């Protein structure tokens, strides 16, 4: 006689591990990096170095939080480094022209959001691939910054409030670090807990399905580039405040660090799956590697090679292990 | 088993007699499509289709592959905007502006490709586009609880509601798509091949669901290649061929053979 029995349910822990495998693996990788640099150098784990690391990681974390939204929609924004440079230069020019710095901050944030939305319009409404639009943006925005500054660095003077944002600290913690963590927390809540975040994930998982259930798919697609624009402006302002000057040569190669941080954190380049916690860990890992290699007196050129190798490894893991694990290939059918 | 198929033998009966049976003569159609035209590039997907849909009836829509069934029903669900023709809903001339417009008019559709988001969990897919919001945030707990009720009401068994849809079987995915369309008080429920991946018991559940919602006055459109199912739940069957509607029959006036001939385009019966 055959008995009809129900399948047993595996342990909830297994499900949890499977679901969070990528965040756990980047957390593990981050710890390995920390241990490695802590044993190889005397200074890595000192309070001063950690604060310095956090201050340097802040612009990356801010833009990577926004980039997580973009990549979750299966998009990409290559222009963030150039946008940072443009805002960086514009802010210095505006302050030098005598505009009060709080007003400059508002103007720059608005300009960043507008620039991003303009790119988003080409991507969402004109259906030009994000790669192409933002590659053009990468060239155009850096070019405008160069044109405006003629390649010179523009000093920021008599704006102590402004430079305090980049150099100051509250309770010993650098203000950029505090601001970047705030941005990451907001990004986490929006992506994970709010309707807009759900729309971003849905558009990335299946754009047509999102449209068919009445979501404003085009607007969502365009809006995430507004977010990277806004975040890039914020990062550009913080960098200007830290360095006390604006330059068209700021943030060269910045987009690579940002994208590496996001992808390393486990956000899927195929869209539909994004994690801010992973992005935070990815950012810290990238920053720790950069910082640690310098402390080890390794050639700065070597840092680029290591960062590149890590991007490759991360994307490899991301596409191989996760595409098969979650059967993501099916969604394109 | 196939009601009607064995009892009726005459073919070529006057199938265009409007709404006999349950539908009171002269009743106003809930949906009335006239001269619907839709082209995709060089493909004339629909070449002027008329279709009426009455409250409380199930209309079967059949036809060859690429006949235009999905395209016609997608127009009704706001997914495509037609290139020509008119649409009346409850006697009112409307131009659907998009899927959200159709949803607001209680038109729901189970898509042939299911239109699920693979990386979102079961509850999230059921509430896709109509998330429950509390104090500005997603109320995931409420959605999970209601999702459980929605699935239970349709006899769908999915043990782990927080599983991503990508991890489910083909039939489970189809069941979720059906639950999503059927659970929010639709007035018009369109099902584009809802049973293609379902097992015996699940097909029965879908047919029972159709019977149940019909009684409450819902208009159902059922597209399927399982012709025997049509004879069990449908009141009327419309046949499409190459972007046109070629025939319309009350179920009691037709049978399997007749239907097959209509679908393949045998001129003698039309
Ligand atoms: N989005 C689209 N773009 C281009 N052509 C399309 C599109 N949708 C449908 N078509 C074309 O319109 C015609 C009708 O397609 P439709 O999907 O409505 O057929 P169907 O009757 O649902 O067929 P099946 O039984 O195979 O589902 C086909 O020739 C198809 O190629
Ligand atoms: Mg079809």
TrEMBL record, chain A:
<feature type="transmembrane region" description="Helical">
    <location>
        <begin position="130"/>
        <end position="149"/>
    </location>
</feature>
<dbReference type="GO" id="GO:0022857">
    <property type="term" value="F:transmembrane transporter activity"/>
</dbReference>
<feature type="transmembrane region" description="Helical">
    <location>
        <begin position="169"/>
        <end position="191"/>
    </location>
</feature>
<dbReference type="GO" id="GO:0005886">
    <property type="term" value="C:plasma membrane"/>
</dbReference>
<feature type="transmembrane region" description="Helical">
    <location>
        <begin position="88"/>
        <end position="118"/>
    </location>
</feature>
<feature type="transmembrane region" description="Helical">
    <location>
        <begin position="276"/>
        <end position="295"/>
    </location>
</feature>
<dbReference type="InterPro" id="IPR001851">
    <property type="entry name" value="ABC_transp_permease"/>
</dbReference>
<keyword id="KW-1133">Transmembrane helix</keyword>
<feature type="transmembrane region" description="Helical">
    <location>
        <begin position="301"/>
        <end position="323"/>
    </location>
</feature>
<keyword id="KW-0472">Membrane</keyword>
<feature type="transmembrane region" description="Helical">
    <location>
        <begin position="250"/>
        <end position="269"/>
    </location>
</feature>
<feature type="transmembrane region" description="Helical">
    <location>
        <begin position="23"/>
        <end position="45"/>
    </location>
</feature>
<feature type="transmembrane region" description="Helical">
    <location>
        <begin position="219"/>
        <end position="244"/>
    </location>
</feature>
<keyword id="KW-1003">Cell membrane</keyword>
<dbReference type="Pfam" id="PF02653">
    <property type="entry name" value="BPD_transp_2"/>
</dbReference>
<protein>
    <submittedName>
        <fullName>Monosaccharide ABC transporter membrane protein, CUT2 family</fullName>
    </submittedName>
</protein>
<feature type="transmembrane region" description="Helical">
    <location>
        <begin position="57"/>
        <end position="76"/>
    </location>
</feature>
<keyword id="KW-0812">Transmembrane</keyword>
Automatic annotation (TrEMBL), chain B:
<dbReference type="InterPro" id="IPR027417">
    <property type="entry name" value="P-loop_NTPase"/>
</dbReference>
<dbReference type="InterPro" id="IPR017871">
    <property type="entry name" value="ABC_transporter-like_CS"/>
</dbReference>
<feature type="compositionally biased region" description="Polar residues">
    <location>
        <begin position="1"/>
        <end position="16"/>
    </location>
</feature>
<dbReference type="InterPro" id="IPR003439">
    <property type="entry name" value="ABC_transporter-like_ATP-bd"/>
</dbReference>
<dbReference type="GO" id="GO:0016887">
    <property type="term" value="F:ATP hydrolysis activity"/>
</dbReference>
<comment type="similarity">
    <text>Belongs to the ABC transporter superfamily.</text>
</comment>
<protein>
    <submittedName>
        <fullName>Monosaccharide ABC transporter ATP-binding protein, CUT2 family</fullName>
    </submittedName>
</protein>
<dbReference type="InterPro" id="IPR050107">
    <property type="entry name" value="ABC_carbohydrate_import_ATPase"/>
</dbReference>
<keyword id="KW-0067">ATP-binding</keyword>
<dbReference type="GO" id="GO:0005524">
    <property type="term" value="F:ATP binding"/>
</dbReference>
<keyword id="KW-0547">Nucleotide-binding</keyword>
<dbReference type="InterPro" id="IPR003593">
    <property type="entry name" value="AAA+_ATPase"/>
</dbReference>
<feature type="domain" description="ABC transporter">
    <location>
        <begin position="31"/>
        <end position="267"/>
    </location>
</feature>
<feature type="region of interest" description="Disordered">
    <location>
        <begin position="1"/>
        <end position="24"/>
    </location>
</feature>
<dbReference type="Pfam" id="PF00005">
    <property type="entry name" value="ABC_tran"/>
</dbReference>
């Amino acid at each position: 006689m055959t008995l009809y029995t129900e399948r047993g349910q595996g342990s909830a822990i297994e499900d949890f591990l499977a679901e969070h495998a990528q965040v756990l693996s980047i957390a593990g990788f981050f710890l390995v990096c920390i241990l490695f640099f802590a044993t190889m150098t005397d200074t890595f784990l000192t309070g001063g170095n950690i604060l310095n690391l956090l201050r340097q990681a802040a612009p990356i974390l801010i833009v990577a939080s926004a980039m997580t939204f973009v990549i979750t929609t299966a998009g990409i924004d290559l222009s963030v480094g150039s946008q940072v440079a443009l805002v960086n230069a514009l802010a210095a020019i505006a302050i030098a022209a005598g505009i009060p710095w709080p007003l400059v901050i508002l103007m720059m944030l608005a300009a960043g959001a507008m620039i991003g939305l303009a790119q988003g319009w080409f991507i969402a409404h004109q259906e030009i691939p994000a790669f192409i639009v933002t590659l053009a943006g990468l060239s155009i925005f850096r070019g405008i910054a160069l044109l405006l500054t003629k390649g010179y660095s523009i000093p920021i003077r008599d704006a102590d409030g402004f430079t305090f944002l980049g150099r100051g600290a509250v309770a010993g913690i650098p203000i950029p670090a505090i601001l970047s963590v705030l941005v990451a927390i907001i990004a986490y809540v929006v992506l994970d807990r709010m309707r807009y975040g759900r729309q971003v994930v849905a558009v990335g998982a299946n754009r047509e399905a999102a449209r068919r259930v009445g979501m404003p798919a085009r607007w969502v697609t365009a809006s995430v580039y507004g977010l990277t624009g806004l975040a890039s402006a914020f990062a550009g302002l913080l960098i200007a405040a830290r360095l006390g000057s604006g330059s068209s040569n700021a943030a060269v190669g910045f987009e690579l660090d940002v994208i590496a941080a996001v992808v390393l954190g486990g956000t899927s380049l195929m869209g539909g799956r994004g994690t801010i916690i992973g992005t935070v860990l990815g950012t810290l890992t990238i920053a720790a590697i950069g910082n640690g290699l310098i402390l080890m007196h390794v050639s700065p050129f070597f840092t680029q090679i290591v960062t590149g190798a890590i991007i490759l490894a991360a994307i490899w893991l991301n596409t191989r292990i996760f595409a098969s694990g979650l059967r993501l290939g099916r969604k394109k059918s | 088993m196939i009601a009607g198929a064995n009892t009726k033998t005459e073919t070529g009966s006057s199938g265009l007699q409007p709404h006999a049976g349950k539908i009171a003569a002269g009743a106003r159609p809930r949906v009335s499509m006239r001269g619907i035209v839709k082209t995709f590039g060089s493909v004339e997907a629909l070449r002027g289709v008329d279709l009426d849909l009455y409250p409380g009836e199930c209309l079967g829509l059949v036809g060859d592959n690429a006949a235009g069934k999905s395209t016609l029903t997608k127009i009704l669900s706001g997914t495509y905007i037609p290139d020509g023709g008119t649409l009346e809903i409850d006697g009112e001339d409307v131009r659907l502006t998009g899927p959200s417009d159709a949803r607001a008019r209680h038109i729901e559709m189970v898509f042939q490709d299911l239109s699920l988001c693979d990386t979102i969990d079961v509850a999230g897919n059921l509430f896709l586009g109509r998330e429950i919001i509390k104090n500005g945030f997603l109320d995931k707990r409420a959605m999970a609880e209601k999702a459980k009720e929605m699935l239970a009401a349709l006899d769908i068994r999915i043990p782990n509601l927080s599983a991503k849809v990508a991890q489910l079987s083909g039939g489970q995915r189809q069941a979720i798509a059906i639950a999503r369309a059927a659970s929010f008080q639709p007035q018009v429920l369109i099902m584009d091949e809802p049973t293609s991946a379902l097992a015996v018991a699940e097909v029965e559940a879908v047919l029972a669901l159709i019977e149940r919602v019909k009684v409450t006055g819902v208009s159902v459109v059922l597209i399927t290649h399982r012709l025997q199912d049509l004879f069990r739940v449908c009141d009327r069957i419309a046949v499409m061929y190459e972007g046109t509607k070629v025939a319309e029959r009350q179920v009691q006036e037709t049978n399997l053979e007749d239907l097959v001939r209509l679908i393949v385009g045998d001129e003698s019966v039309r």
